[in-house]
Amino acid sequence: MSFGFFNYWVFIILLMIGLYTVMSRSNLVKKMIGLSLFQISVFLFYISMGKISGGTAPIVVDGPLDTAAPIYSNPLPHVLILTAIVVGIATTALGLSLVVRIRESFGTIDEEEILEMKDGA
Amino acid sequence: MLLLIAGTMSVLFVRNLFVATMLLGIVSFTMALIFISLDAVDVAFTEAAVGAGISTVLYIGTLALVGSQEKDKPKFAAGPMVICLVVGAVLYYATYEMPRFGEPNNPVHTHVAPRYVNDSPTEIGVPNMVTSVLASYRGYDTFGETTVIFAAGIGVLLILRQRRRRKNEDDETDVPLDKGKTGQSGSLSGLGSQHDLVPHVIAKLLIPFIFVFALYVQYHGDYGPGGGFQEGEIFAAGIILYALVFSLDYARSVVSEKAILFLISAGVLLYGGVGIASMMLGGNFLDYNVLASDPVAGQHLGILLVELGVGITVTAAMLAIFYAFVGRADLIAAKAEQEEN
Description:
The complex is a heterodimer.
Chain A: H1 6-24, H2 28-50, H3 75-106, H4 111-120
Chain B: H1 2-13, H2 17-37, H3 41-66, H4 78-95, H5 113-123, H6 129-137, H7 139-161, H8 179-182, H9 197-219, H10 228-245, H11 248-254, H12 257-280, H13 295-340
């Protein structure tokens, strides 16, 4: 029970930090960074699931091998995360561009200041 | 792993957003190393190119536009903390039901994965299983994801490229960018100073190799780690380096914005076109077996074309996003100059 879940625990801690950053910080760029952290932690979770102890990267090696058949780690999570990373950066860019626009319209990227502005007006 | 936790904690607590961005890059890089140790070389490749490269550039581009100092207000938010701890506790409890890390008999490894691992070398004939699963078995997913990137690129262009029309009306709400406050001058294209000899020479030496490496990654993706997504990032990074060291105008003269718009859609169309072509030849959508006389050769051709489409779209979308950010900074700088005069 000791070391078998270590990766999952790290994932949970990272996820909690990311979630806390998103919820507690009022700066919008900081929120985006928190979202990225959250994302990275989920990547770690998937890749950890795909690992097989003693396995190797899922690329077929030609030529005679000493061992019988190499064990390959599960390629499926790799594929899912590979595309998720690239999609993630694209959506992050979209979020950041919204932040830029908000800054131009309101003069601040602090959520609370924007809300105050709205109440005052 | 512990380095990772330390890195993320410091990202949370650091006040300066610039530092936070750099730390985020470090976290990404550490994560890439961990991915390698977990046998996910393709993913590590992507994470290093995206997380530590492109995303850092994007964050810095944003910070140049919005200012890098977080409001100084150290506070402890009790509500979010409680929610986080509860979520964490639930997940922690759930891990005890999880199968153990690294066991070959975990449910993940017994569903469709054995088929991919055992049959893809004979069915697809591509040594890199990640590539064959990505482009062939799960071709629909990848098509969808390429479309998402396409949509995001277009979205950023739409948000950032619209010009201000009501200039006089929103004078009261519009706070002009205070240069002292933002810390940096608004213009990013001025970064490429004519006098920085060392970066110029280094960049000139490096950029051809970056492009060659990107193409190698693209076409060698069947055999080693790599593929369209990674290629796109690396290629875009090469052009971004060019734009940063020289100037945006030079980069624009190499790859114009119109060309980028054309390329974004061309990549998606190429991907879709391969699917349509396979339908025309009597197969299913994205069924590459019919593309050539021999199914394996057909798979090869199909994967190559599809990866090319992905690569083109990713490159163009990343460049479009970068140009949009930098172009925005130029726009603001030009406007500020106008107001001063």
